[in-house]
Amino acid sequence: MDIPGLPARRAALNLIDAVLRRGETLDQAAGAALSRVRGDADRALTRAIAGEVLRWKADLDALIDSATHQRLPDDAKPRAVLELMLAQVLRLETPPHAVIATGLPLLTGGPRRLAHGVFSTLMKREVSLPEVPTLPDAVRARWGKRAADIAQGLAEPPPLDLALREPEKTQEWAERLGGTSLMPGHVRLPRGAAVESLEGFREGAWWVQDLAASLPARLLGAGEGRRVLDLCAAPGGKTLQLAAAGWEVTALDISKRRLERLKDNLERTRLRADVVQSDAFKWEPGAPFDAILLDAPCTATGTSRRHPDVLHRIGARQIAEMAELQSGLLARAVDWLNPGGSLVYAVCSLEAGEGEAQAAQVALTPQPIAQDELPAGLSPTEEGWLRTDPAMLAEVGGLDGFFVARWRKT
């Protein structure tokens, strides 16, 4: 007998397994895991369950351990099913009877009885989760004294940020969409909005881009027809920003699939850029550029609000690999810059090895970021860099974790 909602729970279990056991991202695992889930609502529910389990895993496990006489192994299926069940009750407000009906069929025999007993015990205790998720031990060790503050920004998925093609119409679009704005060219909406159905989507008046992700391109200012290289450009939010600001943009990326998305957004917004698919370590420009924006490939730990899988997938090996790649890309970028030109380096990472350590190696003249270039509530560091994390601007919805630095070639 088919049980309504069971395929979504089974798919969520597969998503979590792909992240924890195989090190895949939620996006990478979604294709296979969601193949048997029908309907947008159930697909969204699958992602929501998996995301909340990964966001609160340490705290869910603590609850499970408090109700068992003998600790379940970390890879035991009953533990994974109980995490799913508890996340639905405690985070998604699913009624317990619906959780039992769609969770226990994932198990058979003794494991099913065990899970039912543990779940019932915890429900009778009226347990709850803490206000702030507990970070995995390795993550807390890496982030050090910043960890407690960052964790506060991870309790909820982020709102929806839009970047406007015409910043001078910020107030107009904020009113039309029923949102708020934290700086010119930005509108923030509550999460859950169906993007393609929003006013202005079809005519390309805006694109989705986290507020922090929009800051690096802003630091290059107005283009006035000058040439800029958007290095590692896809999926293209910064390319659109630069084109809208009057730059003659070359958008370089190695990924054909991601560049197709960039091209689609250029067509939708009626903005122009020269799109080049190539390996940045093999490609050579015909002439140097007046500015370069390097939003480098990174571990993306700064996006943990929306991608909590990074809390469990990323470790020292991945950080070291990314840091080596970033160093090589920075060296290439410096050589392609005109005298007097500006270089902006950015990563959506909370790891010092991908941010501060990279900036310290750049042999160009620092061009410190100024307070008036940033939204209210953000400030540059003593070095003139920018470091954001998910707990900043929490009172208005927060933002992703980024590192940004800027130099001028003399």
From TrEMBL:
<feature type="active site" description="Nucleophile">
    <location>
        <position position="348"/>
    </location>
</feature>
<protein>
    <submittedName>
        <fullName>16S rRNA (Cytosine967-C5)-methyltransferase</fullName>
    </submittedName>
</protein>
<dbReference type="Pfam" id="PF01189">
    <property type="entry name" value="Methyltr_RsmB-F"/>
</dbReference>
<dbReference type="InterPro" id="IPR023267">
    <property type="entry name" value="RCMT"/>
</dbReference>
<dbReference type="GO" id="GO:0008173">
    <property type="term" value="F:RNA methyltransferase activity"/>
</dbReference>
<keyword id="KW-0694">RNA-binding</keyword>
<feature type="binding site">
    <location>
        <begin position="232"/>
        <end position="238"/>
    </location>
    <ligand>
        <name>S-adenosyl-L-methionine</name>
    </ligand>
</feature>
<keyword id="KW-0175">Coiled coil</keyword>
<dbReference type="InterPro" id="IPR006027">
    <property type="entry name" value="NusB_RsmB_TIM44"/>
</dbReference>
<feature type="binding site">
    <location>
        <position position="279"/>
    </location>
    <ligand>
        <name>S-adenosyl-L-methionine</name>
    </ligand>
</feature>
<dbReference type="InterPro" id="IPR001678">
    <property type="entry name" value="MeTrfase_RsmB-F_NOP2_dom"/>
</dbReference>
<dbReference type="InterPro" id="IPR029063">
    <property type="entry name" value="SAM-dependent_MTases_sf"/>
</dbReference>
<dbReference type="GO" id="GO:0003723">
    <property type="term" value="F:RNA binding"/>
</dbReference>
<feature type="binding site">
    <location>
        <position position="295"/>
    </location>
    <ligand>
        <name>S-adenosyl-L-methionine</name>
    </ligand>
</feature>
<dbReference type="InterPro" id="IPR049560">
    <property type="entry name" value="MeTrfase_RsmB-F_NOP2_cat"/>
</dbReference>
<keyword id="KW-0489">Methyltransferase</keyword>
<dbReference type="Pfam" id="PF01029">
    <property type="entry name" value="NusB"/>
</dbReference>
<feature type="binding site">
    <location>
        <position position="253"/>
    </location>
    <ligand>
        <name>S-adenosyl-L-methionine</name>
    </ligand>
</feature>
<comment type="similarity">
    <text>Belongs to the class I-like SAM-binding methyltransferase superfamily. RsmB/NOP family.</text>
</comment>
<keyword id="KW-0808">Transferase</keyword>
<feature type="domain" description="SAM-dependent MTase RsmB/NOP-type">
    <location>
        <begin position="127"/>
        <end position="410"/>
    </location>
</feature>
<dbReference type="GO" id="GO:0006355">
    <property type="term" value="P:regulation of DNA-templated transcription"/>
</dbReference>
<dbReference type="InterPro" id="IPR018314">
    <property type="entry name" value="RsmB/NOL1/NOP2-like_CS"/>
</dbReference>
<keyword id="KW-0949">S-adenosyl-L-methionine</keyword>
<feature type="coiled-coil region">
    <location>
        <begin position="249"/>
        <end position="279"/>
    </location>
</feature>
<dbReference type="InterPro" id="IPR035926">
    <property type="entry name" value="NusB-like_sf"/>
</dbReference>
<dbReference type="GO" id="GO:0001510">
    <property type="term" value="P:RNA methylation"/>
</dbReference>
